[in-house]
Amino acid sequence: MSKIKNIFQNGPVSPLFIAESVTKHSTKTEIGAHQIFLGQIRTDEIEGKTVKAIEYTAYEDLAINQMAVIREEIFAKYNLTCMHIYHSLGIVNAGEICLFVFTSSKHRKEATLACNEVVERIKNELPIWGREIFEDETHQWKTNQ
After folding, report:
1. 37, exposed or middle or buried, with CB in 10 Å at 0-12, 13-18, 19+?
2. Which of 7, 59, 84, 101 has its CA 20 to 30 A from that of 117?
3. How far is residue 39's CA from residue 99's CA, in Å, rounded to a whole number?
4. Is 1's pLDDT higher than 50?
5. Which domains does the chain have, with CATH numbers?
6. What is the pTM of this model?
7. What is the DSSP secondary-structure string of 89-136?
8. Is there a contact between 53 and 139 (Cβ–Cβ < 8 Å)?
9. C-alpha–C-alpha distance, residues 77 and 43, integer Å
10. Pick from 11-15, 121-125, 140-144: least confident
C-alpha cells in the first residue's frame, strides 16, 4: 500500500486551493480527463429552521486508514493517473465547500466512475459526522443522503 494520506483539513476547502490543484495538473500531459466533485453546504430548511453551517467531526485515524484502503481499491479498479481527496473538519458555513474529490485519467469514463464511487464510499464507509447548526444556534446531527 502506498503512503497513507490525510484527507482532512480544518475549515472549508477554498476555491483558490481547488483552482491551484487543477492548475498543477497542466504539466501532466498523459491526462485526458479530470472529474471533480465539490460538496457544498446548503441552507436546508428543517422543521422551520434554516441551516447556516455544518460542524464536521471524525474518528480521524480510522477514517484515514479506511480511506487508504478505499484509495487502493479504486486505483486497482480504475485506470487512474491520480486521485486527491480533501474533507473539512470543524465549522463550514453555507455556500462553502466541505468535500473536494479530484480524479484524473487518460479517458473521461474512468475518471467519472472513480470519482462517483469515491464520493459514495466516503459518505457510506468513513466515520465522519456532521452537526447541522441552525440560524437560531440550535443544532442536530445530519443524516447523509
Report:
1. middle
2. 59
3. 5
4. no
5. 8-141 (3.90.1170.40)
6. 0.94
7. EEEEETTSEEEEEEEEESSHHHHHHHHHHHHHHHHHHS-EEEEEEETT
8. no
9. 36
10. 140-144
